[in-house]
Amino acid sequence: MKIEDCRADFPITRDLIYLDSAATSLTPTPVVEAMVEYDLRYRANVGRGVHRLAAVATHRYRDARDAIKSFVGGDGGTLAVTRNTTEAIGMVAAGLAWQKGDRVVTTLLEHHSNLLPWLRLRERGVAVDIVRPDAGGSLDLADLEAAIRDDTRLVAVTHASNVLGTVLPVHEIAGICRDRGARLLVDGAQSVPHIPVDVAGIGCDYFCFSGHKMLGPTGTGGIWMRRPDLEPLFVGGGSIESATADGYTLARGEERYEAGTPPIAGTIGLARAAAYLREIGMGAVRRHEERLAIRLIDGLAALDGVTVVGADTPGDRIGVVSFAVEGMHPHEVAQVLDEASAVLVRSGHHCCQPLMEHLGLPDGTVRASTYIYTTRDEIETMIATVEELSRRVI
Ligand SMILES: Cc1ncc(COP(=O)(O)O)c(C=O)c1O
Q1: What percent of the chain has pLDDT over 70?
Q2: What's the pTM value of the predicted model, to 2 decimals?
Q3: 97 and 244 share a domain?
């Protein structure tokens, strides 16, 4: 399928210019149909009953989970379905056997979901070292390497920034972690939807992502583990091999992390979303968004009174562009864009308050984020509307 042909599958794009895909993406008709098909044609619980519907549902659910694992290049490891990235990261924070004196290294580029779980570990005697980017938002790998000590147990970094759009060199970071004997968690919430991802090739230990940002349903996501070495957060139905009145034996594979009934329709929908992205090709997705991001940055940076945040950050980027309009609160800009041109963007801290503080942006930024359904014309409308409102302010 060609990227230009996909728009008809996203009915919301007929009436609105949706530039908030980094918060949650739109979902195409085939994904909704796959979920409806489960509910109307073969709805049953999975991994439990032996009747015919249970057999079909179990088969389709497990195939869907395998397809999601393959999509992120994780065939050799373990992939458990989660509700979202936040839950997946929480599973690592709660599931490693922390000792007092262990250290975690993370960065100030992180979403709260990849920062607060580590800060919380301080209550258990774990120290947290936070590497700061420069004033433009660029991270120096030498600073990250210097922060890793002999007692650093885990390094937790984002693959792509949800504020600046920059892609971090996670392969190199994985090499450093291997050399230094630390485990690596990669927050892939903003990478899996937008660039080709190969978790085994990266060399990380844990990789976390959300389904709702990659055309899939809300309430779905995943954690990929090189080895299933985390203590599960919950135990109960579906997560054990056997149980007696005295105890239980946990299931060996991904099931040990999926206690209770999983999001069956959601997982089937997420696998359909992954297939949809595969049909387009993640290379094509990346190129399409790179072109749009470059135009966005050039167009906005040329306007008087408009500052693009992190515009000069070197390296790869996804279609996420943050900016500020002099004399206007980011929420005001977002409201005017909606009212004047039906352009929907995010405004505020983007769940990255410490980063905003570091960048000297106490009110946050306006953020435009693209996806496969975004067109060049939509980007031009957005730039023209920002130009108009910046003229009014100056
Ligand atoms: C980089 C990053 N990490 C984590 C998250 C949290 O994702 P979720 O709300 O799906 O758990 C987000 C969401 O915006 C994100 O952009």
Answers
A1: 99
A2: 0.97
A3: yes
